[in-house]
Write a structure and sequence with these properties.
five-stranded mixed beta barrel, mainly beta, 3 helices
């Protein structure tokens, strides 16, 4: 576990910084998207942003961090996997999502601090997940897909469900 409270965090290393080009429209089904065209061929705008990715080989990458934080338009969360093609030094073009998503993301905007040593944190880690708070209140808990319902049940049983927690992108 490399000193982490959950094995989830170790999967986000080692990461490298890339500029990721990807298509963007408000109503796109990103999980089913196949993007192989150029901006001129696309029906959507192509945008780019800085991300930290773990190179899994064969053009497959795992998102470790959206470096634009809460201002990111990328409809993915840490732990999600994608295929990308190198278009230049430190620059990748999104091709398509990796195999079935392995993680579910639970999100909310906190009205106060989240206790790093609290019961909710302990349960997230117990269920093989991780959590982060960005910009002082944008909370994301990420757990393996099969564990999300059990996590929510355990949080309810101990009265530790953060108010407003919902399944995110």
């Amino acid at each position: 576990m490399s000193g982490y409270p959950s094995p989830f965090y170790a999967q986000l290393e080692p990461s490298s910084k890339f500029e990721l080009e990807y298509p963007f429209v408000d109503d796109v089904d990103f999980k089913a998207l196949q993007f192989t065209g150029t901006r001129e061929q696309a029906d959507w705008e192509t945008v780019a942003e800085l991300v930290a990715l773990v190179d899994l080989g064969g053009g497959l990458f795992r998102l470790a961090e959206k470096l634009d934080g809460p201002f990111s338009a990328l409809p993915m969360c840490w732990g999600d996997e994608l295929f990308a093609t190198e278009t230049g030094p430190g620059r990748l073009r999104f091709e398509h999502m990796g195999s079935a998503q392995k993680y579910e993301h639970l999100q909310l905007i906190l009205s106060g601090p989240f206790e790093a040593e609290g019961k909710a944190s302990e349960l997230i880690h117990l269920h093989g997940g991780g959590w982060e708070v960005e910009a002082g209140g944008m909370f994301t808990a990420t757990v393996p897909v099969g564990n999300a319902q059990a996590l929510l049940q355990d949080l309810r049983e101990v009265g530790a469900v953060p108010y407003g927690l919902h399944r995110g992108s």
